[in-house]
Amino acid sequence: MIKILKHLKLTEWLLILVCVGFLFAQTWLDLKLPDYMTDITRYVETPDSTMSQIWETGGKMLLCTLGSAVTSVIVGYFAARIAAGFSKRLRSKLFHRVEDFSMEEINGFSTASLITRSTNDITQIQMFIAMGLQIIIKAPILAVWAVAKISTKSWEWTALTGGAVAVLLVMIAAIMIYALPKFRKIQWLTDNLNRVTRENLTGIRVVRAYNAEKYEQAKFEVANSDITNNMLSVTRAMTVFNPGMTLVMSGITLGIYWIGAYLIDAAAGMDKIATFSNMVAFSGYAMQVIMAFMMLTITFIMAPRVQVSAKRINEVLDTKPRILDGKSTQSPADVAGEIEFRNVSFKYPDAEEYVLHDISFKARKGETVAFIGSTGSGKSTLINLVPRFYDVSEGQVLIDDVDVREYTQEALHNKIGYVPQRAVLFTGTVSSNIDFGDNGQELVIEGKSAGEVTEEDRKAAREAEIRRAVEIAQGAEFVEQMEDKYEAHISQGGTNVSGGQKQRLAIARAIYRKPEIYIFDDSFSALDYKTDRILRSALRKETSGVTSLIVAQRIGTIRDADRIIVLDEGNMVGMGTHDELMKNCEVYQQIAYSQLSKEELGA
């Protein structure tokens, strides 16, 4: 927990000091009340006292109460401000750190866990800071100050209060020994519940298609019951605490008056009035001591869960990304779009066996290189090395004669238009999803210099480029039929469009980027053969001079590629054109004959 507080700003530390000052003032005002109550008791019992003295002392009590309330509001405001600002900054740092992670680090934390860490865990810390500034700091001040005042009264009453505190501490220790392990489990159980829920919602179509609702419900019930039973166990333990505190407070009050009765009876003359007044004051101070320990107990209850949350957040913040920026931002202009693999081998982190073995080839500017092979042959893994989703284990991947590890990630990714195996759309509109591909390049507007271009011109050029990209991707027909056309709403994950429409919008996003290199990771699989053929034909015309890497399962998608690379269990077993591979590559022949007839292949 202490480690995570290093993220507090200097201004926030200064506000904490201000809070401490107000807490001292609040404690002083609270502890003045028993003194004034003593004075009122003495005035009531003394015959020559006047009513004005009682009113005056009562007025001071009201002012102290009002002052205590005002300081409490001020401390609460500052505490909430510090806690909210700190949690906002912590959440932002956590998000940015996750954004910097490579696939290796992302896979080290489950999605459900990262969601819990950036929401529930940070909320726990926010609540702890907000309450802690009001309780953790005030409780010791109040306890020490009240004990100091108590010790000047009577050793009998002081011993009684000490005994009550000892009973209280034993009770707290017993509850904490039982509850602490269960508090530590809460966050992990929350992770598990989120995981099961997210998994069910993500795969809802499969669940319904296989009538697996009861199975998923049973799985959810297990996760739900685990966290419920854990919370019930903790709650049962904590329910003992409230009656226990009431018993201690009632017992100490009874004990003070019982001892007080003997002390008053033993006192002589006017000492009886002084003893009675001291008893009233001591009762107030004793309650303040017990209240201080009650406040500390609330902190003890929250602390274990917050400590776990802080540890989990630190795990993310302390995880260093394996893939770091290089220094290069540019490459030689004469080889823009050239890709080379030099003796590349790759294995996933912590895996024993290599997924790719000694892959070497070169894709020159403007060429289309396709990859084909059986499932698990390493096709997607190979092209994921180009944008550095992973770094090679051995060898080099070069773009424009520069190792990809030497580029800054921004410069590298600006060279690439990437269409993933599973098309991803974001909440927004058709336009916003296409515009997601914008890499910051200035749009060229014919007939106008850079200084003459207005915002309206840029907007019109942007809309024209979006339409052009959608047209090339063969998506204009279905987009034009949508209610708001290019401003039509897209749900999270693109759930309100079909798989083929998602793929075409994802391809349009890559085209809008105008990159040096296109990467299509099995991006035509949801398209029918006719749309696939028309789209590839349009791509060849509109993106000539741009290098393309295509992963596909269909022979028809890649047979016109300049070069086809055949992979089998991570090894490159063939490279050449379709006709060449049909003559000399057995693996390619098997794939081809499994999809097309000899007549179709001969044609």
TrEMBL record:
Matches recorded under CDD domains: ABC_6TM_Tm287_like
Annotated TM spans: 12-29, 60-84, 127-148, 160-180, 240-264, 284-303
Cellular component terms (Gene Ontology): plasma membrane
Locations listed in the record: Cell membrane
Family annotation (InterPro entries): AAA+_ATPase (IPR003593), ABC1_TM_dom (IPR011527), ABC1_TM_sf (IPR036640), ABC_transporter-like_ATP-bd (IPR003439), ABC_transporter-like_CS (IPR017871), P-loop_NTPase (IPR027417), Type_1_exporter (IPR039421)
Main location class: membrane
Any one GO molecular-function label of the UniProt entry: ATP binding
Domain ABC transmembrane type-1 residues, every copy: 17-305
Membrane topology (UniProt): Multi-pass membrane protein
Pfam families listed in its UniProt record: ABC_membrane, ABC_tran
Keywords from the UniProt entry: ATP-binding, Cell membrane, Membrane, Nucleotide-binding, Transmembrane, Transmembrane helix, Transport
Sequence ranges assigned to domain ABC transporter in this UniProt record: 339-594
UniProt name for this protein: ATP-binding cassette, subfamily B
Origin organism lineage: Bacteria, Bacillati, Bacillota, Clostridia, Eubacteriales
